[in-house]
Amino acid sequence: MDLKQSRQEIDRLDRELTDLLEQRMKVVTQVAAYKKEHHMEIYDPRREQVVLDKIANLAADKELAPYLKNIYRCIMDESKRYEREYMER
User: Fold this and answer.
1) Those residues with Cβ within 8 angstroms of residue 78's Cβ, 6 or more apart along the chain or in another chain
2) For 79, how many CA atoms within 13 A lie in the half-sphere containing its CB?
3) What is this structure's pTM?
4) Domain 3-87 carries which CATH code?
5) Which of these, 52, 47, 43, lies nearest to 81 by C-alpha position?
6) What does the pLDDT look like over 21-43, one tens digit per residue?
């Protein structure tokens, strides 16, 4: 595969990831609404560790697991920020 083909594949995957991340963020608003209604904290370190462990276990290529966990830390940080903004409305 040449560079152009590789970049086209990355572009295709980015479109898919964007769609999935949008769907994930919509579910985050449901979580935020629940937490707000039940006076719960946004940050749940135990839940985050469960998610990170799950991601590491889901990785078919275990060499990539640390990188995927870092990506998910970023996703969860942005999710918490979005939850905070949603709950302040």
Assistant:
1) none
2) 22
3) 0.93
4) 1.20.59.10
5) 43
6) 999 999 999 999 999 999 999 99
